[in-house]
């Protein structure tokens, strides 16, 4: 028995010894494998760290707070990778050394490092596992205010019908028990206007507001796309979001379009508008609010406001007719606006004729609502003096409902239809379209949109379509408009087709056209852009030989049908973004063609046949990535060519594109060129492009082309609105991912450009003198945009030559007009890490008198923006935005050698945004008075806030200094409204500090007699006691943390009883322990 036990124990010992020895031997045998595994896992962790860092950078860019644990994980990752790198360095050195020594030392070293590699690999694997949660989400989105532009609401401000509807809607939105609110009423009554005004009034209550126009055809995918981010904020972050669905014609199932609803998502508020009451009822709205037409007296007040009360008061006969015209408008604000604008400044006989037409003209084949709109809006159309404006108006109805229309496209269609008499050029057509649009917007027939764009109200569009489908009137037009109706096929009826002059099938999903010849003998316009066509039957165009405008853009057509050669009267042809179209030789038969657009197609060459189209004025071959060359001689044959748009990644030189032939064209005026950034260093001499009236050169890194276009062409805000207007900047230069200095031809382009956009330019230190030399006369810029140019230290840097030459120039001419930046209207500076100041020179050389907007973000070395003497010249500044500048301490610095004794006044400044500026101490550090007579909006928001309680000024140096207790003199309340958001007040550490901040804030508001909307503060009960007996200028106040229990009537509580005595304060909202709104009865 003892022997068996001994044998068992001995066996176990042998097994353990053997397994241990095997493990130790495996360390040596798998040495290389274990080290390689460690290297691979280290690389995986490094890649994961980089991905998470990208998300962190994006979150910081958006001002979002990082989730707990994210930064800790990043720090640990850095530590682990440092240890691994140190280990691998030691291992490599030991490996190199030990192989030169005895084998025993070699084996011992291999064993040690192999075992260490396994241990470190396990740490890396665990850290990768911990990091998986951070790869998808690293931050908490920070709510950003959404600003909704209001359309013509000022005329309705004191109209009771409008005010009551607005108040009822806002009350419903704020009611916590209500999720969905409906607005219904007839077309033109102002539902959309009310929805936008509601959004503007309640935006501070929501983390986000999403406004979606639904229209007759519900685009489910588009709605889902628009609400996707908001839905995440609702469901994941539990934030409050308002979703507005405008112009719904049929009930929408909210879950189908991705909108959270139900008791579990009460943080999602939904506001919808419709012409029909049953739409809201069908969607089970909690409150369905009717928007009524205006009362007779209200309609008369509105009409007088539009026409001009003084003119009517001085002419009793005209006033009598005007009242009768107003009565015919049916109380619809849209119609009143249209009729008033059409008749103001007209003679009395035109008024009388208009009244007669209003009474007599009533089409019978339309419903009552549209009949009135038709009658009154047709009057506005009939009274247009310009035939061109009438034609443009009707053209706008060819597009789908609620589409934003580009005036450039309207000009191209207008050229094709020859609606412009004595047309000089394509540029002349664009100007005349803008003039027509101005006429139409002033007549309320079109709505202006940013960037040379317009929109047609759906009621107005209905009227335009009735005009073109009616047999009444002098119009010889008949339109067939099926745009935006989700059609999958089109089969015209032969018995009605012959009379059509224009057909629009745009924005559908038509995949196939009739495979036989169609008979449209009067057709001059055929529009089928934005469909899914891959092929057009060869005989399709055989029966429409009068067509002058053909738009087949945004399809997937691979080749052109043979019948296109029969369209010999074609003037405008758009084939853009048919990305499979590779051959256009057939177009050489179209001798009358003046506008040809093949942008975004797959063509590899501009063929010789295009040289036969000698009447061509505009050729657009931009974004053709496969275009390698233009057939030699083609450009020189196009003797009437005015504008050329061309861009490619396949071309290696300007000569491949035939651009050297441009100098032979007498009418040529505009070139838009897109090439790789390397080309700007080998750009040829002798092109004379600097002599062109218009150019836009983009030298872009071909690997990043899509990213850069997204970055620079899809900005939001005031500056971007200016950029999108082609009439604003005529000569633009965009260079990215390149090195300074540039070649001489590029320098010449800089000298004549009015807009520059530079991204990631190495070794560029400044704008002047690096790019423009030192002569003031050479500087013509209106727009300056710099991004990620990390060597830029300032915009203007003084050199010895600079000072001497400019002192002499200023001494000789004695004028303030000849200063640097005197023509600049917009400046955007982004991520210039080394930018320390804007002007490193004597400020006598600088003038910003025409600057309208400036945006600065991510400039971490910047300490101040404007010296006082420069700030005193900002007479046209409208918007100021500064974001994420971590070292900025003051926006306007104190006095300098050029300072005058005058105060600082910004007469046109309406918007100030200061966000994420942790070191900002004050807006202005000097003693002069700062005035903002036009200010509408201030936003001051940062992640952290520190405030020096001993400071004699509030952070925004627009307020009276501490200790100044002079009596506040109340002035007349202006009609403008100031929205003042001073969120830093919420960071006060105690009641006394908080009271002082609020005290001086409200003193400023009262001193300026401003109408403060949406003021929000804490400790309000203690704070406002300081204002007992002070005249209140507020009519609406939102307060937090007031009472532990809700008062039965806060108007009986001090200090609100005194505040309400003069009836200035009408509405009080108390939040914190309660959610209640009180109105002063």
UniProtKB/TrEMBL annotation:
One biological process term in Gene Ontology: defense response
Keyword Transmembrane helix: no
SMART domains: AAA
Keyword entries, A-Z: ATP-binding, Coiled coil, Leucine-rich repeat, Nucleotide-binding, Plant defense
Domain AAA+ ATPase intervals: 177-295
Family as reported in the entry's similarity comment: Belongs to the disease resistance NB-LRR family.
InterPro entries associated with the record: AAA+_ATPase, Apaf_helical, At4g27190-like_LRR, Leu-rich_rpt, LRR_dom_sf, NB-ARC, P-loop_NTPase, Plant_NBS-LRR
GO MF, one example: ADP binding
Organism lineage string: Eukaryota, Viridiplantae, Streptophyta, Embryophyta, Tracheophyta
Positions in coiled-coil regions: 28-62
Protein name (database record): AAA+ ATPase domain-containing protein
């Amino acid at each position: 028995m003892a022997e068996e036990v001994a044998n068992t124990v001995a066996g176990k010992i042998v097994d353990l010894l053997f397994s241990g020895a095997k493990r130790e031997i495996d360390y040596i045998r798998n040495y290389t494998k274990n080290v390689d595994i460690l290297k691979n896992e280290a690389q995986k962790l490094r890649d994961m760290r980089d991905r998470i860092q990208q998300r962190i950078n994006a979150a910081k860019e958006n001002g979002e707070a990082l989730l707990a644990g994210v930064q800790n994980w990043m720090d640990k990752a850095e530590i682990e990778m440092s240890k691994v790198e140190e280990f691998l360095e030691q291992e490599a050195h030991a490996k190199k050394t030990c192989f030169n020594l005895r084998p025993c030392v070699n084996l011992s070293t291999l064993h040690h490092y192999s075992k260490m590699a396994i241990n470190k690999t396990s740490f890396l694997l665990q850290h990768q596992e911990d990091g998986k949660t951070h790869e998808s989400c690293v931050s908490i989105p920070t709510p950003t205010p959404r600003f909704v532009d209001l359309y013509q609401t000022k005329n309705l401000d004191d109209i009771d019908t409008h005010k009551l509807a607005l108040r009822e809607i806002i009350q419903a939105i704020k009611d916590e028990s209500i999720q969905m609110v409906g607005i219904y009423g007839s077309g033109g009554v102002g539902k959309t206007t009310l929805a936008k005004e509601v959004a503007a009034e309640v935006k501070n209550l929501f983390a986000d507001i999403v406004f979606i126009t639904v229209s007759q055809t519900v685009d489910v995918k588009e709605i889902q796309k628009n609400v996707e981010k908001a839905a995440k904020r609702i469901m994941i972050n539990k934030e409050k979001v308002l979703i507005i669905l405008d112009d719904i014609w049929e009930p929408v199932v909210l879950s189908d379009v991705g909108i959270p609803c139900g008791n579990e998502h009460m943080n999602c508020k939904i506001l919808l508008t419709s012409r029909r009451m049953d739409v809201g009822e069908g969607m089970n709205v909690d409150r369905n609010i009717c928007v009524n037409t205006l009362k007779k007296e209200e309609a008369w007040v509105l009409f007088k406001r539009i026409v001009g009360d003084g003119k009517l008061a001085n002419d009793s006969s005209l006033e009598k007719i005007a009242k009768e015209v107003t009565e015919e408008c049916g109380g619809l604000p849209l119609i009143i606006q249209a009729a008033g604008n059409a008749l103001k400044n007209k003679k009395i006989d035109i008024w009388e004729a208009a009244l007669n037409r209003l009474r007599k003209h009533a089409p019978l084949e339309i419903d009552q609502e549209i009949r009135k709109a038709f009658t009154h809006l047709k009057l506005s159309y009939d009274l247009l003096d310009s035939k061109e404006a009438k034609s443009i108006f009707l053209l706008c109805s060819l597009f789908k409902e609620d589409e934003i229309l580009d005036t450039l496209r309207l000009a191209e269609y207008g050229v094709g239809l020859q609606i412009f008499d004595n047309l000089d050029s394509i540029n002349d057509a664009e100007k005349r379209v803008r003039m027509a649009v101005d006429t139409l917007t002033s007549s309320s027939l079109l709505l202006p949109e940013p960037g040379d764009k317009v929109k047609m109200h759906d009621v107005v569009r209905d009227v335009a379509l009735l005009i073109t489908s009616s047999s009444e009137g002098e119009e010889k037009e008949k339109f067939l408009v099926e745009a935006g109706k989700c059609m999958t096929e089109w089969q015209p009826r032969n018995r009605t087709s012959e009379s059509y002059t224009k057909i629009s099938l745009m924005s559908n999903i038509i995949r196939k056209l009739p495979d036989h010849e169609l008979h449209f003998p009067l057709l001059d316009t055929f529009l089928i852009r934005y469909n899914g066509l891959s092929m057009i039957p060869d005989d399709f165009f055989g029966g429409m030989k009068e067509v002058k405008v053909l738009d087949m853009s945004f399809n997937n057509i691979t080749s052109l049908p043979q019948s296109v050669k029969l369209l010999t009267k074609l003037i405008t042809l758009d084939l853009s973004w048919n990305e499979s179209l590779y051959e256009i030789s057939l177009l050489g038969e179209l001798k009358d063609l003046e506008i040809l657009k093949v942008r975004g197609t797959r063509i590899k060459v501009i063929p010789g046949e295009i040289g036969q189209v000698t009447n061509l004025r505009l050729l657009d071959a931009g974004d053709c990535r496969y275009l390698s060359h233009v057939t030699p001689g083609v450009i020189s044959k196009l003797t009437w060519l005015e504008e050329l748009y061309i861009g490619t990644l396949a071309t290696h030189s300007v000569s491949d594109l035939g651009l050297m032939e441009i100098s032979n064209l007498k009418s040529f005026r505009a070139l838009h060129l897109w090439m790789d950034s390397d080309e700007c260093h080998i750009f040829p001499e002798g092109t004379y492009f600097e002599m062109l009236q218009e150019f836009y050169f983009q030298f872009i890194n071909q690997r990043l082309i899509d990213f850069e276009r997204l970055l620079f062409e899809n900005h939001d805000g005031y500056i971007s609105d200016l950029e999108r207007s082609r009439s604003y900047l005529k000569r633009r230069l965009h260079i990215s991912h390149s090195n300074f200095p540039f070649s001489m031809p590029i320098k010449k382009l800089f000298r004549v450009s009015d807009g520059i956009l530079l991204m990631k330019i190495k070794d560029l230190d400044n704008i002047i003198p690096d790019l423009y030399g030192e002569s003031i006369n050479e500087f013509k810029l209106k727009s300056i945009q710099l991004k990620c140019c990390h060597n830029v230290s300032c915009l203007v840097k003084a050199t010895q030559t600079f000072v001497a030459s400019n002192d002499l120039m200023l001494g000789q001419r004695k004028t303030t007009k000849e200063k640097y930046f005197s023509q600049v209207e917009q400046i955007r500076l982004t991520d210039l890490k080394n930018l320390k100041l804007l002007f490193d020179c004597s400020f006598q050389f600088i003038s910003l008198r025409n600057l309208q907007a400036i945006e600065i973000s991510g400039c971490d070395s910047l300490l101040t923006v404007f010296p006082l003497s420069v700030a005193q010249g900002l007479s046209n500044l409208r918007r100021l935005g500064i974001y994420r500048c971590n070292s900025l301490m003051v926006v306007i610095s104190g006095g300098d050698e050029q300072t005058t004794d005058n105060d600082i006044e910004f007469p046109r400044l309406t918007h100030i945004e200061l966000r994420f500026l942790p070191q900002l101490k004050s807006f202005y550090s000097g003693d002069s008075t700062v005035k903002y007579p036009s200010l509408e909006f201030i936003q001051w928001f940062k992640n952290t806030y520190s405030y020096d309680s001993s400071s004699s000024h509030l952070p925004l140096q627009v307020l009276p200094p501490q200790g100044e207790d002079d009596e506040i003199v109340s002035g007349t309340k202006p009609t403008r409204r100031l929205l003042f958001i001073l969120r830093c007040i919420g960071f006060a550490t105690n009641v006394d500090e908080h009271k002082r901040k609020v005290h001086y804030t409200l003193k400023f508001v009262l001193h300026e007699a401003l109408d403060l909307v949406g003021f929000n503060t804490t400790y309000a009960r203690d704070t406002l006691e300081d204002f007992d007996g002070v005249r209140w200028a507020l009519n609406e106040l939102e307060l937090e943390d007031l009472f532990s229990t809700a008062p039965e009537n806060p108007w009986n509580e001090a200090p609100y009883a005194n505040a309400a005595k003069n009836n200035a304060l009408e509405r009080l909202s108390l939040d914190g322990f309660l959610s209640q709104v009180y109105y002063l009865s």
